[in-house]
Amino acid sequence: MGFDRRRSVTRRGRVRWLLVCALLGTCVAISTGCTQPPAEPQSRRALLIGIDGASLRVIDPLIRQGRLPSLAAIAQAGASGPLRSHYPLLSPRVWTSIATGKEPKKHGILNWVRPGGKETRELMQSSDRKVHALWNIASTHGRTVGTVNWLNTYPTEIVDGIVVSDAAIPGEVRNREMFFARKDAAVAADAPKEGTTFPAEWHERVTKIRKEPRLFADLPNPFEGDVDFPKWAFRGLLSTAFANDDLIARLALAVEEEIKPDLLMVLMPGIDKISHFLWGTLEPADSYPDTLQFTRAQRETSRQALLATYIQADRLIGALVARFGPEDLVMVVSDHGFEARVLAKGQTTGGHDTAKALYGVMFARGTGIAPGQLVRGVSVNDVTPTILAWWNMPVGEDMDGTPANFLGIDDPATIATHDTSPVKRVAIDLPAGAEDAKLDQLRALGYLQEEHEIE
Ligand SMILES: [Zn+2]
Known about the structure:
Number of domains: 2
Number of strands: 13
Bound molecules: zinc ion
Helix content: 25-40%
Strand content: 5-15%
Distance between the termini: 44 Å
CATH superfamily of the largest domain: Alkaline Phosphatase, subunit A
Radius of gyration: 22 Å
Number of helices: 13
Low-confidence stretches: 1-37, 431-455
CATH class of the largest domain: Alpha Beta
CATH architecture of the largest domain: 3-Layer(aba) Sandwich
Structural class: alpha/beta
């Protein structure tokens, strides 16, 4: 399999260094010296992995049982702990704060949909974001970027690198049209044909990679085969969510293989989707109405399926981390935790609304991060400032976050704002008037003083 081959190349690389060291005869005496020469800060790479809805309530015991070795290794080599989110705990708002360092009122992605009646509800798009994201900032400053499945990245923006938007993941747009824009199946839009990837030819690559086998054949999809799940748990949807985390990791590995970007960002949403239905297996049965009960057998099968989703995410994290060196920055974050919650429609056992779900998780390791630290007082707004400061790049004074405690950088270099040029995105057919609205928005933000500055 492609992944194993790449791992063995890395291992061969290390063996070669050991050999060089042995020949020189120096490294035996200086036991810590037998590593590759330290990379300059500018050339160090960063990996940011999002695991939507991942909770320490599940992760902590699984780490103690040795079942999440990739996250355990990051925690041991660096920092780990709770990551504070902000209300309302809606994924698009929070993931955009993670990617911009700014509160939703500033970045503009307030919900899954734009406000409006049922007939006019439309999904929010990348063009609704009013500020630069980490991929724009990195790209503007000469760093290559790869972004896979980050929320609200359709239509794709033009960066120095590759963007595979969330609209490129099969079924995503349609599901959101039905769940969040509350459209009937007959009128819900399918995945768009253009603007889902940058460059456009990655549209074909996604189709090809979809057909390739899963990375870890020894971890069967727990929602497939002869197993008993409650009828209300939307088993088909959960099976797709489990499979899509693997697809998303494969897409990220393909981007990595192709351009080895300075910044790779990937968002895996499986844990959130599966927790909405199966979180109840971790709660007392009397927290739920009769219509949302598990039989004893279903409870165990469903609990194991939820844990398997975390275990698969950890394996996928391991596959991505294996592509990065010990001096590179590796960060894994979630946007919120989970709690017992029955939605009005009465179909879910888990949700994220109150203080019980306010904290997600953060794991980070890399040069300058001392091993075994606790993440303290860090919020979702701090992720982008942390990555910028780690790169010795200035943090925007208009950002709402600051570098995380574990970097030990008290007064990072700053700049008034990184939002000094219009964000460019691929051209798709926008509804009449949308372009004018976008230009007005840019003008209001001070991007455009004069018409002739428009690129
Ligand atoms: Zn959710």
